[in-house]
Give the backbone structure.
Amino acid sequence: MTAFDLLLPSSCAGCDRPGTACCATCLDEFGPPARIQVPGVGPPVWALAAYRGAARELVLAFKERGARALVAWFGAMVAVALVSAGPRPWTLVPAPSRRSAARDRGGDHMLRIARAVQIANVAQVLRLAAGVSDSVGLSPAERRRNLEGRVEVHGRPQPGTTVLLDDVITTGATASACVRALRRAGVRTDAVLALTSARPNQPR
């Protein structure tokens, strides 16, 4: 695959159907934001799709395989979903990635999506301190310990409805750690919005 293919893909990243970065069938895996139950997070948590099938493939293609053309699709989905989070003005706070992971991906993937949401402000105020491990394969308790005290806040979002933006809700450890860090810094998180959820009570 060439760099040109990544920027202007000739097939759907979800099902490999030729013609577009995301075909209508795969796009239909994402629906209106669905409220999901995530104990310990605090604010309402919403997700646009279950983390499976084409939705999972699209998230992974964007996150891990450099399918940059998908940013427009994800940005549009988030923009439509923001009406469930609260009134304007909206400020998106991207959930942070480990610095090494962001370097490997050519940048912070959630920041890229947040910036594609043209109707919202973006506040890149969260960072992960050194020592955070990859969460893949960790138990819920290990995920919580991995992030405990390691989410740092640098700066404050603009006044308005503050929405934490993430790609996948699994145990809720990341969302919970981010919300707690923001609260300690005097920032209220009004909602958490995820592209997908791997929770048992996942959407659709």
Remarks:
- Helices lie at 3-7, 24-27, 53-64, 71-81, 99-104, 109-116, 140-147, 173-184.
- The radius of gyration is 16 Å.
